Amino acid sequence: MSQEDRTGWPLEEQRGLWYEDLKPGVVYAHQPGRTMTEYDNILFSTLSMNPQGLHVDFAFAADLEPFHRPLVNSMFTLATLVGMSVSHLTRGTTVANLGFTDVRFPNPLFHGDTMYGATVVRDKRLSSSRPATGIVTFEHTGKKQDGAVVAIAVRQVMMRRSPTAPGTSAARDATR
User: Fold this and answer.
1) How many Cα atoms occupy the beta-carbon half-sphere of 77 within 13 Å?
2) Dihedral angle sign, alpha carbons of residues 98, 103, 109, 115
3) d(CA 90, CA 15)
4) Domain that residue 111 falls in
5) Domain presence at residue 157
6) Taking CA atoms, which of 20, 79, 122, 160 is between 20 and 30 Å from 61?
7) Cα 102 to chain centroid, rounded
8) Domain tally for the chain?
9) Does a structural domain hold residue 10?
10) Residue 12 to residues 5, 35, 105: CA-CA distances in angstroms?
11) At what angle do helices 38-47 and 74-85 cross, to 10 degrees?
12) How far apart are CA 82 and CA 100, in angstroms?
């Protein structure tokens, strides 16, 4: 939505993409990456009530095969991966997350690793019950700095259609 700020300059607010803007098969690379710190991992684990020693107890983790050090909490990895996509794809244009499937963590993520995210639009269709929305299937992939895949998640999202898209209330109002 464009408007003027108080200096008189045009103001363009950042938002995600509308349903119509998302193209199946396109890979959206999200920048910047995110370095996962010890503080982040401990904070997320305690806030989410996950006392697993693999995440919060260095002495415990040091004795465990095969890594001998704490792992970044996989739910933090997933949340960060999806979060990386928001400003690029869905900020202000998502109605709701409908679900996650095929969530995998094929390689570990450790304190100090940097994760980079990318999302591909696997599929999309118009909603049969809500004409102002569509259903989009995203596949999010997180890789660390050496290219190893650390997370993959398929997510279904209800997305807003462009206010000017045919069949939406704004488009109907404009033709009256």
Assistant:
1) 28
2) negative
3) 7
4) 16-174
5) yes
6) 79
7) 15
8) 1
9) no
10) 9, 30, 38
11) 100
12) 11
Any idea what the CATH number is for the domain that residue 140 is in?
3.10.129.10
Contact by Cβ (8 Å): 82, 76? no
Amino acid at site 84: M
pLDDT in tens, the chain (176 residues): 456 567 778 877 778 999 999 999 999 999 999 999 999 999 999 999 998 999 999 999 999 999 999 999 999 999 999 999 999 999 999 999 999 999 999 999 999 999 999 999 999 999 999 999 999 999 999 999 999 999 999 999 999 999 998 887 655 444 44
Q: How far apart are CA 167 and CA 88, in angstroms?
A: 25
Residues 6+ positions from 50 with CB-CB distance below 8 Å: 73, 75
Residue 151's closest CA among 93, 76, 55? 76
In a domain, 26, yes or no: yes
Half-sphere exposure of 111 (CA within 13 A, CB side): 16
